[in-house]
Amino acid sequence: xxxxxxxxxxxxxxxxxxxxxxxxxxxxxxxxxxxxxxxxxxxxxxxxxxxxxxxxxxxxxxxxxxxxxxxxxxxxxxxxxxxxxxxxxxxxxxxxxxxxxxxxxxxxxxxxxxxxxxxxxxxxxxxxxxxxxxxxxxxxxxxxxxxxxxxxxxxxxxxxxxxxxxxxxxxxxxxxxxxxxxxxxxxxxxxxxxxxxxxxxxxxxxxxxxxxxxxxxxxxxxxxxxxxxxxxxxxxxxxxxxxxxxxxxxxxxxxxxxxxxxxxxxxxxxxxxxxxxxxxxxxxxxxxxxxxxxxxxxxxxxxxxxxxxxxxxxxxxxxxxxxxxxxxxxxxxxxxxxxxxxxxxxxxxxxxxxxxxxxxxxxxxxxxxxxxxxxxxxxxxxxxxxxxxxxxxxxxxxxxxxxxxxxxxxxxxxxxxxxxxxxxxxxxxxxxxxxxxxxxxxxxxxxxxxxxxxx
Length: 455
Fold this sequence. Notes:
Largest sheet: 4 strands, antiparallel
Number of strands: 13
């Protein structure tokens, strides 16, 4: 049976490649075969197109890396089929929509993207879907292979000793707390923004095109260029008010004006598919007024005085007053954005937001800054209090001081070794053929070596 499969796979390669020879119909070309999976050159070109639209410079050698990643995916996918590891169609649809929105945003709109691709967005989405699905399945399979990998303290110590002269040195690290206070508009201040979006809703009811108005007026940078289209999403992906209307309306219906933490919305449901909804929306963001900032300054001073007078600890004040949902339930402490999974509060000083560094640079340990007017990444103004909990000077890694980091590094090393061993075994037992065009790719030498041995 295995011999029959290998012969059949080889015949498929010969058949497809016969249409890619000079002077014949240039339909496509087989770049590689992994088991019962064929990788076409068009698949690699499609991935390369996405690479370019991520803002990367043209570089044909990147196709070597793309093929390496695709070979890896195909091996994982093959094992996933054996282990019945699958992904939901809704998850695939969401990932396709997310990538298309990103590409359209970079291209400057759907029309310009279609001109570059020389095909419609719908056609390109259909072509992307199998590749994206394979990628999601591969991710899930890889997670299954490594899900039970942990390291013992003894393994951490052994890993640390194995570093020898390669023990890393850490830059200055700090633990910084924050209390973020956002301005609150009065009902009267909000009304003009509500009136603006209500006027758009009435225009749509009167026959104006939803997508055109979304492109012109919506203040959601992630969807306005696409006519407000959000693609498919489930109940966990949107603000609760947004989800409530999205799952309440029928296809084609338009919501009344409603408010979320992001501003005022109207939405239209396009399609419902089980527990997934495809919708589009228009967002109008209320703008902070000078009066609201004046009120907020008084509130911020009040919070600061309570903490300084020891009426509230910084952690308690953050829990009660802070508007930053990511830190308020963590005692106000910021997490290292480059190591979120470990949930570490130690942040290298060169990774801090420059505006935060300027405030804490001259502070003493335990110090709390006075309320400071700042502008967030989304352009909104507010007041912020900062707390310098600790500061660790530059040092060479050691087990006593840096055990959590060394443990994470040891676990990553163990995961990588486990995956390397898994792939090595699968390559040895799997039929692999790579087109001669990729013989110069250094990344593929281990694959071509395995393929030669298998042959």
